Amino acid sequence: MPDRTTAVQTGDGPMEVFTTRPEGEGPFPVVVQLMDGLGMRDELRDHARRTASWGYYVVAPDLYHRSGLKGPLATDRDGMTVVMAAIRDVTDDRATHDVEAALAVADADPAARKGPIGMYGFCMGGRLTVVQCQRFGDRIAAGASLHPGNLVTDRPDSPHRHLDRVRAALYFGIADRDATATPAQMEELERALTAHGIIYQLEFHPDAPHGYMMPSRAGVYNAAAAENARSRLKVLFARRLM
Questions:
Q1: Average pLDDT over residues 43-66
Q2: Beta strand pairing call for 30-34 and 169-177
């Protein structure tokens, strides 16, 4: 499977963009993968390759390029202090600029198909997927938010308050043991999705903590939840992008 890492220039310096796709000339539908808070690492590249194996040109930008942090970041007490600071540094506006720069890589490659794209993300990337579906409007045809947090908050910029431009069909794979995605919060999210007429599926994965998609995280990874969420993602993209 052809892999490539490209350094692209952004307004905040160079950013690495990992791309992977099936063998052959294509063109293949484009899918953007947005990272979790533990930094760009081989585990995320493996996720991208698996998605690419379904027939997609996957683009994965390193959203920590401003700080220079590389994963896997530590998850002990001190490590999580670094992680949370890094997450706060990835603002919605910065993520939008980074996605635009990453899509420029695909736009310049004949193997990448023009037209509507897909997007998915883990953890902070799951939240950012919803934000970018709003910002890119009808360019994103399908989006998946995997073990996200903070989709529903009291802040004016809470993602659930800004869904009027979303045209993507959405999947939410929620960890059922996640204080940042509680049943009450997800009920409020569903009310907002319904009010805007958005096609979506939201499901809680039993016995799944935040981070359940990541095999490297012993005690957090839930194989059954991960495979179920991945199967939903595969069907969603096939319906909306193929």
A1: 98
A2: unpaired
Structure tokens at 240: 């909306």
Selection from 126, 109, 136 nearest residue 173 by Cα: 126
Q: What is the pTM (predicted TM-score) of this model?
A: 0.97
Q: Could you state, in order of their start, the residue ranges of all structural domains in the chain?
A: 3-241
Tell me the mean pLDDT in the region 127-154. 98
First to last CA, the chain: 19
Cα separation of 33 and 191, whole Å?
26
CB-based contacts of 217, cutoff 8 Å, min separation 6: 75, 211
Q: Tens digits of per-residue pLDDT, 188-232?
A: 999 999 999 999 999 999 999 999 999 999 999 999 999 999 999
Give per-residue burial for 59-74: e unless 16+ CB within 10 Å, then b. bbbbbbbbeebebbbe
Tokens (6 digits) for 50: 């698996």
Give residue 183's pLDDT band: very low, low, confident or very high (50, 70, 90). Answer: very high
Contact between residue 118 and residue 30 where contact means Cβ atoms under 8 Å apart: yes
d(CA 130, CA 165): 11
Which CATH number does 3-241 carry? 3.40.50.1820
CB-CB neighbours of 239 under 10 Å: 12
Q: Residues 223, 133, 151, 163: is their CA dihedral positive or negative?
A: negative
User: Omega of the bond prior to 72 within 30 degrees of 0, cis?
Assistant: yes
The per-residue pLDDT for range 84-94, each reduced to its tens digit, is 999 999 999 99
